[in-house]
Amino acid sequence: MTENLQSCCLANWKMEMELDPAKDDLPLMANTRHMLVKHYVLDLDVDFKSQVIEGTIVLFFEPGSRCKKGGSAGEGACLSQSDETCKIRASEPCHSPVTNVSARSSKTGYNDFAVCAKGEKDTSDKNGNHSNGEQASGISSSKNCCDIENHGSEDFLLVLDCCDLSVLKVEEVDVAAVPGIEKFTRSAKLTDAEELRNLRNQIVHELVTLPADRWREQLYYYTRCSQAPGCGELLFSTGTWSLMIRKAEVQAPRDFPHAIRIWYKTKPEGRSVTWTTDQSSRPCVYTMGSPINNRALFPCQEPPVAMSTWQTTVRTASCFVVLMSGENSAEPAQLQEEREIKVQGGQVTCPRPCSWCLLSWYYYVTMPMPASTFTIAIGCWTEVKQESHTADVRTNNEFSSLFSRADLRLIEGSCGHVAYPCRFQNPAASSQLVIPHRVFAPWCLKDRCAEILLELIPQCLSAAHATLGTHPFSRLDVLIVPSNFSSLGMASPHIIFLSQSVLTGGSHLCGTRLCHEIAHAWFGLAIGARDWTEEWISEGFATYLEDVFWAVAQQQLPHDEAREQQELKALLRWRRLRDEVQNSEEELQVLRPNKENTGEVSESGTCIIKHGLNAEKIFMQVHYLKGYFLLQSLAKRIGEATYFEFLRKFVQKFHGQLILSQDFLYMLLEDIPEQKGYGLSVENIIRAWLDTSGIPKPLLEECQTWDQCRLVRQVNDEVTKWIQVNQRARKRSKRKRRQDEVAFQKLLPDQLVLLLESLLEEKTLCLRTLQCLEKTYHLDEQDSEVRHRWCELVVKHKYTTRYADIEKFLKEDQAMGVYLYGELMVNEDAKQQELAYKCFAATQKQMDVSSAKVVAEMLF
Ligand SMILES: [Zn+2]
Q1: Contact at 8 Å (CB) between 502 and 511?
Q2: Phi, psi of 378 (to 5 degrees)
Q3: Cα of 653 to ligand 1 centre, how many Å?
Q4: DSSP character for 564?
Q5: What is the pLDDT of residues 159-174, one digit of tens each?
Q6: Residues with catalytic function
Q7: What pTM does this model have?
Q8: Among 279, 535, 606, 797, which has the highest number of CB atoms less than 10 A from its own CB?
Q9: Ligand 1 centroid vs 659 CA: distance in angstroms?
């Protein structure tokens, strides 16, 4: 801890210089301990022709925890109540952070804050190549403040996370110019410049700390302030990972402007958004959950501790639908656009086709969340609606029995987070089983969505409510994303992305995936990991809860059957974990790679996410799987009823906050003290599950039991039959086949996965067996998990007549196809390699960067 305290803001510079973008670790550069963003106002134009998003962002700040006078830790700085260190640090005196900048910049050839007189400030921007990566430094200043060695070295430096953005201008916003804003100021004396500056910061302070019930007024004034005129350009400079801003002669964060406006443009190649076409070949753009999050979309404070609200206005051509993390389901507004209108012979004609008319979309959130959770998707999506209202949305009564009285009492308790209009305090919101939701998809997938997805959503939402209670978010959009999306799903505030891969086969894969993403509303979003390396807090919980929700969502399923399905799932996950542990670097198998230093940041608030950019890690599931097994093993020890009651209490206590693993484990063991006698201790759990590579010891003891489950035994019987069929087919290949005599059992999708995986272990399967297998289970109509195993069998046994299945899979199920490429290459079979090259050539351009990188490594 002391090491961390001694490192100072210079770490920023050091980090920036030592970081190789090609390396694995991801830096979070923002100095959140000095300045903490509270709200973003984005105002953006999206142009599909140039694939550029351009506009302004206004950031509203409060001084960070290191800079608060009197060290009041309660004011938003400390998000986790158990964070003792944060409280201690919060009371430290505020230092002027940058000392000796010039020495460092000269040493490394950095040319920050180069002179650039007003009027020529755009030189680096004209070609749009004013790249962070090129370490160009733009500056906009009305004053010639070049002499950094003499004046600049003591100046406070605001560091924002930023990458692949062209920053055009940065300025202070004159919030005092907003009519009616006087009510936010206690004294209205405006005698000198310093007082005016203080006044502006005081206004921002009053605005960001307005009580939660005045959120409408707050949003209104955020809007007005964001439109206020500028009052002085600020000096800025960009590095590979950051945007650094300073104001001449301002040395303390509290004197630094608390409202700043940044003019910027994204770059087509920026890695926060993907410009592509949807399945109906129409253009679209979306945030694809890249490891660098949103910093190539807008300059921001990436560290999760910078929880903020936001509001966004997006203008784009009227054929597009703009979906976003916003609590309002926005209706677009037609813009009164100034455009050239030609008057010819008295006739007014618009020079543009109607599809060029612009629409404006406005979204906002009132719940503070990390900027990384912000999501946007713009495309020609179609809203999918129910033909007739026959869907049975279940009534409150059906599920009320799952709640104990304790849960109802909890609702009355107050929340632990910073003040915002919280649904947990609102009885009407708390009893809402199904939140309002919409489904969007490309035109060509509309019918499949209507058929499979539409009615699952209310079922899964109410199942989630039955398990955990209050939905943390007030509404939900579900979008079927383009085929190059690299995973099966992604959850963000108010919006879930699903891959088209969940729309094949029956409802099983779609339902379980939907449950997984819905679970993230609680674990991952409402309760976030304070340290991003603790991914298991989000993924382990969602994987565990996906089974629980799905069992409830399948209404008629008897308890025993639900349990059996979960045991089968456990076995499949166990096999997956075993394989992954055998085939990956040990270091990547640890759930808490930073061990006891987890959650620590430098004095200024920066940190480095270990392996954050590792392409291999992105495809690993160890955090999902080990996290899941840990939670499952705790449930078994404690008993499900007690466990779920605890989970609801935990959610009640920690929603709206960031946590570390310990927060969960300590509360669990305190809540259930008698369990301590069973050898459960936080230290033991951390040692066995979180801090070590490989398979956790307790799990090794448990894994035998799943083999005995009925659904697994059933599969084993079928495998035996197939092996016999195969042997007979090989022996009497020339005689008349009598396979028809074998009666095969009907199998569930997960059973089919296990069956095919087991058959993959067979050395030889003859052509006839494969044909029969395909016919018996209609494999080409199964969900993508089953078809994936089928494709593996086709590759392994060089079943050339079904190579079309592989081709289709690699094009339509890109989220799952990556490893299939490896298998096509490994046999060193010319035809298979040709197939791999062909499919990669067809999809490469669209493929997301990490997937393309991994596949290219396999192929070339
Ligand atoms: Zn709350």
Answers
A1: no
A2: -125, 125
A3: 8
A4: H
A5: 999 999 999 999 999 9
A6: 517
A7: 0.84
A8: 606
A9: 15
